[in-house]
Amino acid sequence: METLIPRRYAILTEGLLVGMHGKTAHGVLRYRDDAVVAVIDSHYAGKRVDEVLPALGSRAPIVASLEEAMKLGPTALLVGVATSGGKMPPAMRPTVLAAVDAGLEIVNGLHDCLKDDPEIVARAQRSGAQLWDVRVPPDDIPLFSGAAYNVRSQVVLAIGSDCAVGKMTAMLEVERAAKEEGARIEFVATGQTGILIAGKGIAVDRVISDFVTGAAEQLVLDAARNADVVFVEGQGSIFHPAYAPVTFGLLYGSAPDALVLCHRVGKTAIAGFENVELPDLAELVRDHEALIERIKPAKVVAIALDTSALSEQQARNAIAQTAKETGLPVDDPVRNGGAGLWHAIQKGIESTQKALDRAAAAARS
Amino acid sequence: METLIPRRYAILTEGLLVGMHGKTAHGVLRYRDDAVVAVIDSHYAGKRVDEVLPALGSRAPIVASLEEAMKLGPTALLVGVATSGGKMPPAMRPTVLAAVDAGLEIVNGLHDCLKDDPEIVARAQRSGAQLWDVRVPPDDIPLFSGAAYNVRSQVVLAIGSDCAVGKMTAMLEVERAAKEEGARIEFVATGQTGILIAGKGIAVDRVISDFVTGAAEQLVLDAARNADVVFVEGQGSIFHPAYAPVTFGLLYGSAPDALVLCHRVGKTAIAGFENVELPDLAELVRDHEALIERIKPAKVVAIALDTSALSEQQARNAIAQTAKETGLPVDDPVRNGGAGLWHAIQKGIESTQKALDRAAAAARS
Q1: Using CA atoms, how far apart are residues A245 and B243, in angstroms rounded to an integer?
Q2: B9-133 carries CATH number 3.40.50.150
């Protein structure tokens, strides 16, 4: 729950800027570009980020070495990759050590902790470099109590067909649109990239399994103090063979009033577990609603579709087709901005509230 | 995964011997009575365990103090309670400290670690007392890989309508019956009591959430080396608002071939979350089968019913009634021994195997 102080990041991605393992870097470049002085990646050095990844909207320079990045005045080196298992790629270690020696703060979103690395710790002590392991959760998380059932704010949770289908992005785009309209909104970060962007949060995949629901609940209770609507970043998928426990921790622990289902067009199976074929989206909606019906009922009120691989026309068709198949409002908030989804969420919350009021009135009479 | 060396336990329950918080003690008294010299609990002192809890079949004496227990020659003090949140009850601390000073090994199944307690650690260093925090998982658990899908052994997982409905007990009773018939069986312990009984295992509720499925997979791979059938102790319930992430970790990570549903007669809601009403058992069977159908399909092959609150005749009726409602073999393995359930599991595995063979033959022709 560390608060973000103004940082000027050099983001280290060394060979992994493009592709799924670079998603930490992508998130920060997209939503905190103002805080990035350079990306360090010798594979793409000499270009700007928008020449390699135009969708991010970042003009940060890509340089080949820490030495070059230092000329641009960073205060921190961000280890900007998310590898399977969370280990630091060996190719990055020399740069990290050099940055420690240069006194830069090291900001690390990997599972592997800087503070568990004796060499890094020793050299940081000598140089005065600060170390921030973003994934390390607070050590005083309580068990889930049910208090989240009683918050006055409306809680909206992003769910998804898989990892890396745009759950964080959808919530951030909706947050931006809602704030532009003056709504009292809080974004709840539950993963390392989200925490880097929001400046606080808990990496729930790093929390002891008995306490994941409790962590989600605490995040919601905290955010609800200052917001009418709380947007919770989701993780994984209920059908993910490896990561579903984290997904269920958020689904049960954040006690959502409404769900936004996120999906990438064309995805038909869980990445890395191609034997796990996904149901169609209408069924995925029903599966989620059925699961939480006995605990705290909530409906899927909108679908966020990642259409980044499609042309404008194809995207329009995919959005229309998905809306027809599911009967739900559908949009790509990156392509079209978050306002459409935000309005759909508001309507969904409103109609759920009316249904609850009717049920309460019926119970009284 | 520490191996159990022969221990002579004094079990400390101080006021909590009877009731749900005493379940660690109950498990050890039921399945490792040979290793227990005394229970320390001033509320019941002067009696034998079978006078207070006849169902456990233990004649161990209950004494009021460590001093009295020491006359019976224990080698270890077992902190025999499972409190919410895993804190040591303050009333137990003086006895634990005295046992440390007396040089007894301290065996602790609580979330709170002895090794994080400076006073206990310091006094243990002086007296030479060993400290075993049973819940602390190994620190080298890999992510789930899918290797569990390919083990040759049949994997049977206990699932349940809630916590504390007899999942561990059912698997241990079936293990006992199967071993008596000469079957090559391994019991996989996933909670502190099971680990104390089996001498190895991982307390999955203490594993970082991203690695729970990986922990379950490693346990299965390890057990499958020496067994034709692996019985996995389940945890929690898919509808438990707080603990479901652990449940899903086992359901997905152990990649079971067959499920045994455990339930206590009369239970209608999740303990502590009475708003969460349970579906009937036939629906609970369908819910579990539907959840894993996309990942690794498995069927519920038998139901283990805890009828301990009923008379003999009531129990017979409840078992017959449940069998009728679900169409599945049903038994109370504590009341009637595990042989009936073991035979039902064998039949279930066999008929699943035949169905798979038929499907494979159809695919070839």
Answers
A1: 10
A2: no
Q: Are B183 and B229 in contact (CB under 8 A)?
A: yes
**Distance between CA atoms of residues B283 and B239, nearest Å:** 12
pLDDT one-digit tens code per residue, B71-113: 999 999 999 998 887 889 999 999 999 999 999 999 998 888 9
The tokens for B276 are 């969460």
Chain B hits for A296, CB-CB cut-off 8 Å, are 241
pTM to 2 decimal places: 0.86
Superfamily per CATH, domain A147-364: P-loop containing nucleotide triphosphate hydrolases (3.40.50.300)
A276-305 confidence digits (pLDDT tens)? 999 999 999 999 999 999 999 999 999 999
Which bin fits B58, alpha (ψ -120 to 50), beta or left (φ > 0)? Answer: beta
- Nearest residue of A to residue B275 by CA position? A295
Which pLDDT belongs to residue A5? Answer: 55
Please determine whether the domains at B9-133 and B147-364 fall in the same fold group of CATH: yes
Q: Domain segments of chain B: what residues?
A: 9-133, 147-364
Of the candidates A84, A210, A252, the beta carbon closest to that of B241 is on: A252
The reply to whether residue A205 touches residue B209, judged by beta carbons under 8 angstroms, is yes
> Tell me: the pLDDT tens digits for A315-353?
999 999 999 999 999 999 999 999 999 999 999 999 988
Write out the residues of chain A at the interface with chain B, using a CB-CB cutoff of 8 A: 84-85, 111, 142-144, 146, 149, 204-210, 212-214, 239, 241-246, 248-249, 252-253, 273, 275-279, 294-296
- Tokens for B251, please give them: 């359901």
Is the Cβ pair A246, B244 closer than 8 Å?
no
